[in-house]
Design goal:
With about 100 residues, the chain is of the alpha+beta class. About 55% of the residues lie in helices and about 15% in strands. The protein has a single domain, classed as 434 Repressor (Amino-terminal Domain) (Orthogonal Bundle). It has a three-stranded antiparallel sheet with strand order 1-2-3, with no helix packed on it. It starts with a strand and ends in a 5-residue tail after the last helix.
Amino acid sequence: MRLRLKSDGRIVELHDGGAFALAPEAPLAARSINPMVRDLRRRAQLTQTEFAARLGVPVETIRNWEQGKSTPRGPARALLAVIAHAPETVFAALATGATDL
């Protein structure tokens, strides 16, 4: 038996060319943060592509977060928390780039 830990915290068994979930649901943390990502993006009135560009991540990352296939961790999770409180400030700071550091 081969097992794999997915980025959203699920454990899947690999066999016959497929991945089959051993635990049917994502952890509670994943279920609570993923709708927040979509809500933040919509409140900012941005498409997934625009939101990804502003955060400097691939659009697939945003899609995966919103669909619950993966969960933001570490710096991305912290950045999303700050965006929730001051989106204009964060997007303005990100737009200036790292040259101001």
